[in-house]
Amino acid sequence: GSERQLPDLSECAREPIQFLGHVQSFGCLLMMSNDWVIQNVSTNTGVILGLDAHSLVGARLMDHLSPDAMHDLRGKLQTLSSGDESGRLFGVDLLGDGRSFDVALHRVGSSYAIEFESKTGGRKRDDLALVQPLIARVRRCRTVEEMCRAAARGMALLTGFARVMVYRFGPDQNGVVIAESRSDKMESYLGLHFPAGDIPPQARDLYRRSLLRIIADVDAPVFPIIPDRDPEGHPVDLSLSVTRAVSPIHLEYLRNMPVRASMSVSILRMGELWGLMACHHPEPHHIDYETRSAVELFIQLFSYELALCEDQLERDQAGRAHDLHERLVMLFESGVDFASGLDRIAEEIGAVIDFDGLALLSEERYCAQGLAPDEAEFARLERHLARAPAGRVFCTDHLEQACPGAVSPERCIGGLMALPIKRHPRRFLMLFRSEVAQNVVWAGDPTKVVTDKGRIHPRRSFSAWREIIRGHSTPWSPAERRAAEVLRVTLLELVLKLTSDQNLAGQ
Ligand code: BLA
């Protein structure tokens, strides 16, 4: 058949990504009880801080850090114990030796996780000052696509990543790159589709809670946390940790691309993942916690602007849907009916719902305009629809699957929206959408998962290939479905009136 067979990705979904027990090399992690005793540490505290990991376990933090740093940390921990989930400190001289660190703190049950990263680079640029003008550029855009392009450019400026993409999720959790900003060295991913399984469900859940993750170097060593259990005997929960080492499966995916560093930031809409800003670099690439915090702010503001824009577009659409009622009523009052005014009616509906043709039986006469089946096929569709629940709009973006054999594939009709206009007998106004020669460009074969010794690996080949899904149209949008509900009521009313007018005339 034309349906893609997606592989069983349950193994990916079972990977416990927040409990893998390692950190990346750019930072170290300490778990501390609420009476300041160190419970667990990552083994790279020696590299990052110059403090031996084994001797830290069981010690107290104040025995190792400078009094000034302890003062700052205490202040932050206070805000955590009074309700904040996390806190940040930038440019702290932890050991009183002039070296500067960024610090991330968050609560994990009754303990605290504290992470340290060395400040990198010399002269510090003011990233926060950049966010404002970048958002101003986003705000000047009129469409979602323009906004995403401006945001991708802004993100490239803020972070220096060589390829920045806005990756948008579809209804089936597959995704497509809708905007991109990249250096000439990088290959374009614009327009590429990726299957849902590339980002398994537990990763999506995590990315709703924690907005940003950076993988500074896919080939860098990772460091275990010792001991590997918390005092209750559970693996340490790294869900909100900023230094968390990521799944080895995903590292392999990035190496296959090939990409050496990756960062992604969640774009949320009403608490749900709308998409991701995905960033790649061909060499190791790290940006410090302070810059990453500016990035998070930028994306939060961008998400807000995006939502405003989408809301406005929806309101415009709803306004046009409302006008449609008035305009159709006026049209019919001027004496037009379905047979004589089909083109006008099609034009009015077309202002609100996108379609390529429409058809209906009016007075038992078949009226069709644009892309439409023949009368016999239409009759088959009506018989099919008569079995669907009454009084509702029916729509599909895969007609052959919804009504097998009803319409010849040669018509190239992919989508159907059917609005009930009469109950006895059941009659429908049908809108048709053409089959998109869906040249979906998948990045790599979505059906191919390389397995080796029972382990699933992400695809090895990333050369884009074309998969032709026959018989599909573009999906009917939620706004179009809502407009169709309003239109359904209008049409019922008009048909009822036409019938009673005729009955009166006949008396
Ligand atoms: C995580 N997969 C991710 C992440 C992205 C993608 C963005 C978040 C981590 C990051 O920022 O790198 C996928 N990256 C993409 C996509 C694009 C991109 C689609 O740039 C497109 C432009 N992945 C697979 C398969 C499995 C898998 C088959 O392809 C499982 C077998 C797993 N992906 C996987 C896992 C994670 C992940 C487990 C979580 C990594 C983690 O956070 O620990």
UniProtKB/TrEMBL annotation:
Reaction(s) the record says it catalyses: ATP + protein L-histidine = ADP + protein N-phospho-L-histidine
The protein's Enzyme Commission number: 2.7.13.3
EC class of the enzyme, as a word: transferase
Protein's GO biological process: detection of visible light; phosphorelay signal transduction system; regulation of DNA-templated transcription
GO molecular-function terms, A-Z: ATP binding; photoreceptor activity; protein histidine kinase activity
UniProt keyword terms in alphabetical order: ATP-binding, Chromophore, Kinase, Nucleotide-binding, Phosphoprotein, Photoreceptor protein, Receptor, Sensory transduction, Transferase
Annotated ranges, domain Phytochrome chromophore attachment site: 143-300
Listed name of the protein: histidine kinase
Organism: Rubellimicrobium rubrum
Coverage span on the entire protein: 123 to 629 of 970
